[in-house]
Amino acid sequence: MFATPMFSKSASSKKLFLMLCALAVVATGCEKKEAAAPAEVKAVDPYIVEITDQLAQQVKLHTAGNIEMRGTLRVPGTVQVDEQRIARIGASVTGRIKDIEVTLGQNVKNGQLLATLNSTELAQNQLVYIKAAQQIGLQTKAVERAKLLQEADVIGAAELQRRQAELSAAQADLNAARDQLLVLGMNESAIDKLSSTGQIRSYSNVTTRLSGTVISRKVNLGQVVQPAEELFIIADLSHVWVVAEVPEQQVDLIKVGEEVLVEIPALGNKQYKAKLIYEGDIVNPETRTVTVRSDLQNINREIKPDMLVSMLIQSLPEQKLAVPLQSIVRENDNTYVYVQLAPNKFRLREVKLGPDYNGMVNVESGVAMGEIVVSDGAFHVNNERKRKELE
Q: Partner of 123 at 20 to 30 A CA spacing, among 140, 187, 315, 358?
């Protein structure tokens, strides 16, 4: 009567036992799979890249090391006319302007006529010269006559000496008159012509004593001018000065005779080589600066006086760790280089840069002395790394 229930209970227990065993097996399998899953995922560093042998042929390497570098001091300045290549032209005699032969900005040659003026002063001095020349003729004849009379024992030696003294005085007057004409602007040939013809010419020429450009004209037709007045300024602009003010703290960087760079914003920030020719002897007490001057060639005349410039002066040389400029990779406003880990294997590393100099750039942090970095071909290596990231 109780056999069937007991059998049923035993069968149920057995069934339950089998189900529990099955669940245990499943759970164990899951645990094994879960434990095995992490082992199958291989960690990949996105900053490491391995390149092919073919790409490696396009890559050049550089060993980071110290080089002699110079910083750059940038000081504002202006272009000025070279005072040693300038002529301030005025009239040599008082007179009224009759003709003006040149215009502002015109190129002129040495000795070229700039203007003509009419001068009564010049005419009067020419007349004095003519009279002095005539006196020479008269006094010369008087001395010759006195010599004949003395030989005939008509006059004494004292009279001959008196007439010879008068001839010497007349000669002195003639020399003085000639010198005055030279001061008033007449040349030797014009004075000789005046002596032979006796014809007075009251016109005086204003000529240039320098080949260059007319950069100033302060005269008009009919204007009465004096010798002290400045009528024209002629400047040779084949060389100009660049004048700048250097802070007194950096004045030790100034070495007269060294080369500097001059950058001109008006000419597209074009840079020119100039030579330092002057360093001021005093410090401006208001600005605490020292005036420096450099000589700049201006063969094409593209540099104009009064242009604003920047003078770039190199600092004293220092030993600094550096890599080639082409090693630098820029991404997201950061700078990187590729450092070699093994042949054809490189790691992208962020670096902090200092100033650059002659194709090299100072590395302040990120690269150690003796590490090998990619120089030429860093762009290709970076593209290869990005390509593999997308795979």
A: 140
Domains 48-69+318-390 and 71-97+108-117+205-316 share a fold: no
Beta-carbon-side half-sphere exposure of residue 346 (alpha carbons within 13 Å): 32
> For residue range 45-84, what is the model confidence (pLDDT) as tens digits?
788 999 888 898 889 999 999 998 877 788 999 999 999 9
Q: What is the pTM of this model?
A: 0.59
Q: Which residue has the tokens 């290549």?
A: 85
Q: Tell the burial category of 332 from Cβ atoms under 10 Å away from its Cβ (0-12, 13-18, 19+).
A: exposed
CA distance 272 to 260: 8
The alpha carbon of 55 is separated from its chain's Cα centroid by a whole number of angstroms, namely 42
**Tokens (6 digits) for 66:** 């110290």
Q: Which helix (H) or strand (E) holds 214?
A: strand 212-217
Q: Which two tokens stand for residue 16?
A: 């339950």
Q: CA-CA distance, 157 to 376, in Å (whole number)? A: 105
Give the bridge partners for 297, in sequence order.
Answer: 239
Helix (H), strand (E) at residue 151: helix 120-151
Angle at 103 between CA 101 and CA 109, to 5 degrees: 65
Indicate the domain borders of the chain: 48-69+318-390, 71-97+108-117+205-316, 120-201
CATH code assigned to 71-97+108-117+205-316: 2.40.30.170
Contact 348, 382 (CB under 8 A): yes
Q: 48-69+318-390 has which fold?
A: 2.40.420
Report yes or no: 207 and 102 within 8 Å, Cβ to Cβ: no
Q: Which residue in 215, 231, 262 sits closest to 106, CA to CA?
A: 215
Of the CA atoms within 13 Å of residue 140, those in its CB half-sphere come to: 7
In single-letter form, the type of residue at position 84 comes to Q
